[in-house]
Amino acid sequence: MRAWFFSENAYHLLPEAREYDSIRVKLPNRYYDPKLGADLYHRFIDEWLMAEDLGLEIMVNEHHQTATNVNPSAAVVMGALGRVTRSARLLILGNPIANRREPVRVAEEMAMVDVYSRGRLECGFVRGVPYEMSAGNHRPTRMMERFWEAHDLIVKAWTSHDGPFNWEGKYFHHRQVNIWPRPYQEPHPPIWITALSPGSAREVGARGYTVACFLTGFEGTKTVFDNYRERRVELGLPAASRDRFAYAALVYTGETDEAGYAGARKLMWYLESNKVPPQFTGPPGYHPIASTVNAMKGATPGIYKMFQNPTLEGLMEHGLVFAGNPDSVYRQVMRMYDHVGGFGQLLMMSQAGFLDHEETVKGMQMFSREVYPRLKELR
Amino acid sequence: MSDWTTVAGVQLEMVERGRGRPILWLHGEEGLDPDAPVLGALAAHGRLLAPSHPGYGHSPEAATVDTVDDLAYLYLDLLAQQKARDAVVIGASLGGWIAAEMAVKSTTSLGHLVLVAPLGIKVGDRETRDIPDIFALHPDEVLKLQYHDPACARLDPATLSDDRLTVIARNREATALYGWEPYFHNPKLRGRLHRITLPTLLLWGAEDRFVTAGYYGSAYRDAIPGARLETVAAAGHFPHLEQPAAVAERIGTFITT
Question: Which of A207, B135, B207, B231 has a CA between 20 and 30 Å from the CA of residue A193?
């Protein structure tokens, strides 16, 4: 198993939550102090470098118009990391390609990062969370159709080396596609795609990419991984290796269980600070009709209740948090591993909110020294 | 009670009622309620055709239909298929936008045009939000802007069937499909409205705080030669829901004189 250190680069120095009604989309940026923001950027880059020194891989993502994540361009920060790191794999999870107006630009940016890093990029594509719709003016309907057209165009741009090709699709038009540079890796960087639903899992499975689940807990993750595997069987394709399956959780390892829980409680800022009004959580068309109907009836699946009123005990019980002393964290990871039929990529959200630099580093060190060697042995 | 019809390969749930002159009712973001009193009242004046646009009500989505432009052609095709002559085309809000787009394309089958608080045009400059962003406002705020009496419009999901809730969710989704961007308008439409040479009535809720008669309604009226703008008292953006009798009466008078 490979473990990835992931930080959302939040700007947590906010007023009391009662002073604003949304941390996303409409929180005025007068609350953002660029001088403090610069310190934070540098701190987070330092933490990614320390992750590499500890033998961990590096993961970044992007969100827009939100204090929960001040990386509106994953390519920019990964460009910097591509230059200053030496050995870590560099995962962007990911590029919200249903929302990017120019897929060819994404292909260019990713090729740049791949070349900068001499072939260490792992390129993720994501649909993007519902809050991104208003933040970027992206229509929430028929998104997956747009997503796959963007994907097809990007892959073709990466793999065409004999001059321009033509693209006049339903959503994207570009008559002379001929990117410089081309990717360092052949035929292109490994592709990762996030999935929540059985349908998406099957699409990713058919293509054999790495599928990633974020905070989907035991049952949600199992459903996605099972559908991915079943789809490959249906198509007569070889079984995917474990490195094609990724799971993201909040992870904090302490010397004792109590120290691990204390760190995890600070990571819960991700969930606790996510104050968002309904118009941004459920833009029409984003969620399937049946889910919207259930939500209208107030029938929230247990796991989503965890997001509304998170408790550490509940989050751990559902497999959204792995925390405690090294033995406890190992056992919790393995419980998920066994439940979902194995996975080869552990995406660790291990910095958030008020978890300071020393605490973040300490959690990483404990994990990499005391837990990671045991996970690496899994083949 | 709805029937089904197929136009240019697109399947539509459609209310058909009454006899005589064709009256095409194009619903707005709220979708089509087959039992809406306004439909019954209008059927007294002719043969009412009231389809649910693709994606609304029980009408399936159509892969080939994702813009108001597509809807305008679809309903011109429907009128042609019905061999309609001298049809009355009535559209409310999003439906008004569809009706206006039809009329600038072709008036061959049309006799009268009624636009009930239509969307579809850009009035102000690029930094003026002509139409409040329903996708970025709390649902309660949207009700306050759109209804004279928001309390009557508030629904209690606990009292509604799964079918009704599904229709509500589908209506919202279809509204995002057709109205997301450019936001509830066609940048070119205002400049084309001069092509409408039909008798045209603009009906507006006097209490419409979503798009006001004074700002948006008068811009529409000024762009359509000879159009008349009338307001309906004690009604917001959906006067046909809040004052169905008054709306049907105004329309009845307009199309018979």
Answer: B135
